[in-house]
Design a protein that fits this description.
The chain has helices spanning about 1-25, 205-210; strands at about 60-65, 90, 105-115, 120-125, 125-135, 140-145, 150-160, 175, 180-185, 190-195, 200-205, 225, 230, 240-245, 250, 265-270, 275-280, 285-290, 295-300, 310-315, 320-325, 330-335, 340-350, 360-365, 365-370, 375-380, 385-390, 400-405, 410, 415-420, 430-435, 445-450, 450-455, 460-465. The protein is mainly beta. It has one domain (about 35-465): YVTN repeat-like/Quinoprotein amine dehydrogenase (Methylamine Dehydrogenase, Chain H, 7 Propeller). The strands form 8 sheets. A 5-stranded antiparallel beta sheet has the order 1-7-6-5-4, with no helix packed on it. It has a 5-stranded mixed beta sheet with strand order 2-28-29-30-31, with no helix packed on it. The chain starts with a helix and ends in a 6-residue tail after the last strand.
Length: about 475
């Protein structure tokens, strides 16, 4: 009888012990992980979104000590937000770009270790701004560096516990002469004085607006427009405008359908003479009035669980939408109709023909340039939806970023291989390539200023001199 009793008891004890081990294992913040990429090519992901924590605001500003005062660069170039000044990932700097590189690649002007993630910088008035995550201090850190040498002038940090989930920070600040606005991994929005780093205001979108933290944390990059911060929290407000100087809410867009925040960022457009903000939420694409936040139009057919690329307005009422996970792409036409707007679908293509997973396509020379998710090739497509060229199966780009400067495409492969090609509709014409980073997951968007290019991988950010050599 005693042996029978033990035989029955042991399986139960093993189940209890196994359950406890599984609970502890899932709850720990592992020091490493093996997932090779984001969002992933192994099917639609499970929802691993953690619960956001609202820190009691106890932020602190630190002036970083140096033997000599840190000064901004005198270079005039600016990349003040995600995708640059004109939201198109095209540098307008007059500086000519080198069309060939030495074997070792462009000169590295400076290099910094940064917190794990894919957050990229904004550049303005000779300063470089980055939102980072300090795992030791368990704090989001908004950091300001000199563009000349990467020396850190100041940082503003606030406590928030963020566990690794394919990295931490992944957004780009928005900056102008007076303000810098950031969004942290758990949807904390901070506005600072861009010169001094002094706090203007702070919002906890989860606590204050019922925002649901997206899978893999916040990827939406804030916008500053007319000294207003433009955000898309979801929850209680689909979009909202906040006065940068005071933190006063200027307007909020109602969200009766409870559309959720995605990784997509808000893009401005003028359609039918009306300036508006275009956004891809979890429930569809939407355009709202820049004046008062009123919904002008919706496309509820464009439903994407994990939308990462931002909408691409083409300037004539056409808006290009794309996403990963076999969603493909869609071109819509928005036009004025009396006192309102109407939306017409022009075409929709499967992912095999065209579909970007992580980086937003570029509209240049009346064509769309993007990395197609299914085969990781750089492709060029006309606005009617016909691919006119692809880079070829031997030239893969993974999920890395790309941008255009001086008529050339700079494209960074997952593991830090930088390629230079003609930004032409005639075909893929590569001019140079070099291994500029040696880490993994080099996915952060690029930033250009005065012939300097800033790129990063998961843990390192570098500044390259890509300008044409002076004779």
């Amino acid at each position: 009888m005693k042996g029978l009793w033990l035989a029955r008891l042991i399986p139960g004890l093993l189940i209890v012990a196994g359950s406890a081990f599984l609970y502890l294992w899932l709850g720990c913040d592992s020091g490493w992980y093996v997932t090779p990429r984001l969002p992933g090519h192994d099917g639609r992901p499970k929802n691993l979104t953690p619960q956001a924590q609202s820190p009691a605001l106890s932020g602190k500003l630190e002036i970083i000590p140096h033997p000599e005062p840190v000064k901004p660069s005198s270079l005039p170039g600016s990349w003040p937000r995600f995708r640059g000044a004109d939201f198109d990932a095209i540098s307008k700097d007059p500086v000519k770009v080198a069309r060939t590189w030495p074997a070792e690649g462009p000169k590295v002007l400076w290099s910094l270790e940064v917190g794990e993630g894919y957050a990229s910088p904004a550049i303005h008035a000779g300063w470089v701004y980055l939102i980072d995550y300090d795992r030791t201090a368990q704090a989001d850190a908004i950091r300001c560096f000199s563009l000349d040498n990467g020396a850190e002038a100041w940082r503003f940090s606030y406590p928030v516990k963020v566990k690794r989930n394919h990295g931490m920070s992944r957004t780009v600040p928005a900056v102008n002469d007076r303000y810098v606005v950031t969004m942290g991994p758990l949807c904390h929005v901070t506005c600072l004085d861009s010169a001094s780093g002094q706090l203007k205001w702070f919002l906890d979108l989860v606590k204050d607006y019922g925002t649901k933290v997206p899978l893999w944390y916040a990827g939406q990059c804030p916008m500053i427009d007319n000294d207003r911060a433009i955000l898309a929290p979801g929850g209680k407000a689909l979009l909202m405008a906040v006065e940068c100087e005071t933190g006063k809410i200027v307007w909020q867009t109602p969200n009766p359908n409870k559309w959720e925040m995605t990784h997509s960022s808000i893009m401005p457009a003028v359609i039918g003479g009306v300036r508006q903000y275009v956004y891809c939420s979890g429930g569809g694409a939407v355009g709202v009035s820049a004046e008062d936040g009123k919904v002008l139009w919706e496309d509820s057919e464009w439903t994407v669980r994990t939308n990462v690329p931002s909408p691409v307005p083409l300037g004539d009422g056409r808006i290009f939408l794309t996403a990963g996970y076999n969603r493909g792409c869609r071109m819509i036409f928005v036009q004025k109709d009396g006192d309102g707007f109407v939306v017409q679908k022009l075409y929709e293509l499967p992912a095999e023909e065209f579909g970007a997973e992580q980086q937003t396509p570029i509209w240049y020379r009346d064509h769309l340039f993007a990395i197609r998710a299914v085969d990781e090739q750089l492709v060029c497509m006309n606005p009617q939806g016909k691919v006119v060229w692809a880079s070829g199966s031997s030239v893969k780009f993974g999920l890395g970023p790309f941008a255009i400067a001086d008529g050339l495409i700079f494209a960074l492969e997952d593991h830090g291989l930088l390629r230079l090609a003609e930004a032409t509709t005639e075909g893929y014409i590569q001019l140079a390539e070099a291994q500029v980073l040696t880490g993994r997951d080099a996915w952060g968007p690029m930033a250009f200023a005065s012939g300097r290019l800033i790129v990063r991988d998961e843990t390192r950010m570098i500044c390259l001199d890509v300008a044409e050599a002076k004779q």
